[in-house]
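Two proteins, back to back. First:
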Amino acid sequence: KTRFAYQAFTVSANTTYVVECEYAIKDDVDDAPGGDRIGVQILEGHFADGRDALEANKLSEVVGAEALGKGNFTLVKTEFETGDTGEIAIWIYGVTNEDAYVDNVKLYPKE
């Protein structure tokens, strides 16, 4: 199963931000090719079509591959620098052969 979520934001330009979230992957079937994983990318810009987002400049990416079972969440976090426009998008994807969950997505300026 490959799934994705997209959310566009306009934030302060030329500023360091942090994005974090928690994810859980069930662990009761064989992994997807390359291993079960949840990825979080920060993309530069806003996109009307997901195909355009796939070609976008990545400001940051973090991939979590812990499959600890439903309800056992793992925190992933990454920092990034915004560009001149402050237009960014969070692109979250999952590649698994089983159910996966993402929760508590947070975006905030680095202190």
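And the second protein:
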Amino acid sequence: MKRDRLGNMDYWDKWIRFGEQAIFESKQIVLTPPGDPRYRPQFIFGIVQDSYELALRRYSRGDPISELSVFDDVMEFWEESRRLGEEVWSPEQFHTHKSWTVNFDLYIVCFWLVGLALTLDVPEKQWERLLVLVGNEGEDLLLDSVIFSRKTGRKIGDNLCFPKAYRKLLDVTLAPTEQQPKVLRAYLDGWYTGLKEAGPTTSPSSHRTPYWYKFGDENFEGGAYFGRWCIEAAAVAKAFNIDDTLCLDHPHYPDLLKDGRSPRYPDTSALVQKNWLGRFFGGKP
């Protein structure tokens, strides 16, 4: 059964197949002679985005967490995008593509990938490659601390890049041990709304909220929605050894530390078919 309350299995199956095909086709395009080199780095990074979104769709559908790792594609194409970007981006563009402080989406994606890497216990070689791409050592008190849990010696920042969104998650790490589970659960209640316009005040309003924030509210049938999972909370639970039992039934909490504990939801399309058949054959709906 599926993990996400939204969508039915037809929805998840359809858009997972679409995502797999899109990644395959993008890889084929990358093998062809390049067009305008200015657009190639961003196009290649699109494979990275498609890959982690595909992993989250699979999680929403109910796939085993052992099958969520997409790090081979993430590493290969993020590294290539960065390499090509160095050839065509201006210093200002390069800063925007690498810096957490000016790029809210980048910060969240880095947090998600670090969280997935931690909870999936990726091999050390993948972990080290990821940290090179994540960069920004010493820039953020929270994310640096999460990374430090596996990379001792990581320099930890003094401040939060985005306090509106993550101050209360930092509070979880600072709370007394016996209070951490309750504080973590309380953070989840405000996580989604706390992301709205939480990005850098120097950015345009459209860039201060995560790009995926309205996915699911608008054009749901178009397939953009991949779930709303607070991987950051699971990453903190893993990094600080917090009992996450109180969080398991929360609609935004991904059960990544030990699969099989959180609620599952029946396929609504199957229920509709069952009820229709029951009425057709004179049974109870």
